[in-house]
Amino acid sequence: MGEGRPGVAATLRALNGALGRPAPLWVKESGARNLRHRDFLAPRAALSAAFPGGQVPPEAVSAVPSLRGPAVLPLQVCRQTPAGLAVQVRRPEAFQRLLGPLPGPASPATGARTGCVVLHCPALRGAAALRPRHLRSVLLADHLAQLLRAQGVGVRLVPALTEDRRWDILRQLRICWPSGSGGSSLPDAVSALKAALGQCPCAAACEQGPGTAEGVIFKVHLKSFVEQQGLVGYDPNLDVLLVTEGTLWSLAELQEAVLQCPVTPCCALLQAKGQSSCCSIIHVVNCEEEFQQQQLDVLWRILDPGKHLVCGPVKVTNPSSVQGTCCFLSCQGSLWANEAWTEVIDTLTVAAIRFEMLSTAHRSQVGHISTKGTKSGAFVMYNCARLATLFNTFQRAVERGEHQPHHSPLTSSQNSLCSENVFALQVCKFLIQLSMDFSSYYNRVHILGEPFPHLFDQMFARLQLLGAVRDVFHSALATLHLPPLSQI
User: Fold this and answer.
1) What span, in angstroms and rounded, lies between the C-alpha atoms of 154 and 113?
2) From the CB of residue 353, how many other CB atoms can be counted at a distance below 10 Å?
3) What's the rounded Cα separation, in Å, for the pair 360 and 120?
4) In what order do the strands lie in the sheet with 40-43?
5) Cβ distance 295 to 238 under 8 Å?
6) What is the pLDDT of residues 130-188, one digit of tens each?
7) pLDDT band for position 340 (50/70/90)?
8) What is the mean pLDDT of residues 251-279?
9) How far is it, in rounded angstroms, from Cα 399 to Cα 406?
10) Is 89 strand, coil or helix?
11) Which CATH code of 3.40.50.620, 3.90.190.20, 3.30.70.270, 2.60.210.10 fits the domain covering 116-311?
């Protein structure tokens, strides 16, 4: 049997294929009463429409339990019932494959990589202070970098942070961004870009004089370039771009980031075929700066293609007052002075901001940062802390001799996890939905039962399940630069 994780969708495809009919006949059972007897059902009405008299050939029925595949759940029995054709899953084996240790992200071999991605966040460029409307694009760029690196993709972050601005907010939000003053080759690159624009048919040099904006060195007719290239999706108001030294400096920094991407065999093959780069460029901006970034993007397209990822606006409502802060400090002074609780509060703050900004559709407005309800970052971190407390409590009970050490239960008891509540729990959902599912399960099921031998298998099975849930929490939170909390 394959070592991949089994899934419901793949199992349904295999079951439909076993009956030899193109139409989907099977459904996943979800009712509590029915789950005691079956996991999948081909309803009688569907069978009557697909087979004469609703009679499935016996050889097809007998072949169902032998279905195999990397993502197919292990099947135990298939039988005719008054409701239709019913299938039961070998649940202990299914749980063992589902709840085994989660593998970390595989690091592909160097030769298997197809290039790298340059993430460009213009909000970090220039001398202006970072405003709340910029935070969302910065957080999204940071999160994208983590996800891409987890897949073995090389990532370059642009621009480098300069020393003439304070970046305390990035440190507080646990955003990892490179700093530096720019490469020594940037002046030469800017000169090369000037020469390239001087040869471009859609660009014209500008002489300083009356009526000319200060610092403008070129006028580039973007609309004519967009029409010639047949580019779609750009603002129809794109027309003439006044190019300054700063504009070319930004492009030179992007170009340098592309040149610094590692050259893999795949990249070398593309370059040998005449393609200048196998590097993707993603500009992450908020919608208020979309037009300006489209101008830069079209200018960059003259040299190399790029992509846009546009964020919606961030609106600040009901900002915290100084009086409210002072009131909190006076009421909770002892907790605030504790370094451990300071770290907890900082983590909850970062979680609230990140979850609110990253869980909202990218073109929708973020109205406020909420720490209430079951869809907030604080709720996710709270459930992560509940898991840590649960396993710490179990470990202390083992040390006191009240419980046996945890062993693998999934081969010793076939009924330990046969409850429909456990089987229906999907540990791969988005973190917020996973938190809601876990919270519901945690409030409904007593995990650490009494220290009686006949209850050990069930308790160990539940711990195995929640251990897998904990691993999912930790892996997902790592992509957000959020440490899992052990207490709240």
Assistant:
1) 8
2) 20
3) 21
4) 27-28, 40-43, 84-89, 75-81
5) yes
6) 777 778 888 888 888 888 888 788 888 888 887 766 778 888 888 888 887 655 677 88
7) low
8) 61
9) 12
10) strand
11) 3.40.50.620
